[in-house]
Amino acid sequence: MSLAVRPVVGRRAKISALGTYVPPQVLTNKDLEKMVDTNDQWIVERTGIKERHVLAAGKGVSDICVEAAKKCLAARGIEPSEVEVIIVGTVTPDMMFPSTACLVQDKIGAKGAWGFDVSAGCSGFVFALQAGVKLVESGAQSKVLVCGADANTRMTDYTDRATCVLFGDGGGAVLIEPAEEGEIGMIDFVHEIDGSGGVSLNLPAGGSLNPSTHETIDKKMHFIHQDGQAVYKFAVRKMAEATTKLLERNGVTGADLGCFIPHQANKRIITSTADRLGMPADRVIINIEKYGNTSAGTIPLAMETAVEEGKLKKGDLVLIAAVGAGFTVGTALLRWEI
């Protein structure tokens, strides 16, 4: 391997801590069999999902972020008051405004911090991560809390057998700080958006185009609308293209990676990308069977799984990748420095 580390003006940035959270309530495939015309075998064969977590009534995605943030900051041994910026990747905010970042800031007591939300579908965490990295690399900030979380069950139509089996709730948070001497941290990224794909995966109502009315509710316009085949084809193609581009321009192959942490949307998409990269199966992180698709929450949750399984260790070269509504594509290459 000949890793061409991207030069950085100023300083390098790294992930210094990780925390995750999923709600305790679990919805299994057997539970879904009682709700809609489906069965466990069909769901597992087509998606790899066995169960997913559901956020309790009266809670919002900010509560997922708060629990993950508390674990993240405790792991780093710092107080919330030391956090300078909070960036939240989500498409299921508690409300249209204020931002989820504002709610998280207040709930954890990060007095004096500023922040914002990033709406990039399932690529939300990867996009938010890069925003935090650039703030640290520039020297403008030194402690940026990046959250990726979604409460997808809030916008899932449980009469639609094609989509209701896919989604779950959960997420995670990482702290971005300057890398120490001798550490590499974040190396490079490839991001892309393609708005022509918006018709294939969207939530039609609730915004300025289709404000909430009895008609939009009756037409189920506040639920996820997805053209599964179009999304699948785009995800398979673009995840492979973006990851290949990122590795090639950094002089890296799949065999050089400690692990590959992909967005957990569909097991077949993951294995297809891994095969294109020449990744050994034991270095590909898959936990979709436990959580389903938690959108912006999948990558931090998969990072936690990788650590727990001993597949993500300090010094490992790591590739993360996601494709989401928009369409959005996000990939990043980094050294794990925890």
Automatic annotation (TrEMBL):
Every Beta-ketoacyl-[acyl-carrier-protein] synthase III N-terminal domain range:
116-195
- Name the UniProt key words of this record, in alphabetical order: Acyltransferase, Cytoplasm, Fatty acid biosynthesis, Fatty acid metabolism, Lipid biosynthesis, Lipid metabolism, Multifunctional enzyme, Transferase
EC annotation?
A: 2.3.1.180
Entry's localization field: Cytoplasm
Q: In which pathway does it act?
A: Lipid metabolism; fatty acid biosynthesis
Q: Where is the Beta-ketoacyl-[acyl-carrier-protein] synthase III C-terminal domain?
A: 247-336
Gene Ontology terms, MF aspect: 3-oxoacyl-[acyl-carrier-protein] synthase activity; beta-ketoacyl-acyl-carrier-protein synthase III activity
> Signal sequence: where?
none
Q: Could you name the domain of life of the organism this protein comes from?
A: Bacteria
Q: Which residues form a coiled coil?
A: none
Q: Where primarily located? A: cytoplasm
Reactions listed under catalytic activity = malonyl-[ACP] + acetyl-CoA + H(+) = 3-oxobutanoyl-[ACP] + CO2 + CoA
Q: What does this protein do?
A: Catalyzes the condensation reaction of fatty acid synthesis by the addition to an acyl acceptor of two carbons from malonyl-ACP. Catalyzes the first condensation reaction which initiates fatty acid synthesis and may therefore play a role in governing the total rate of fatty acid production. Possesses both acetoacetyl-ACP synthase and acetyl transacylase activities. Its substrate specificity determines the biosynthesis of branched-chain and/or straight-chain of fatty acids.
Q: What is this protein called?
A: Beta-ketoacyl-[acyl-carrier-protein] synthase III
What gene is behind this protein?
Answer: fabH
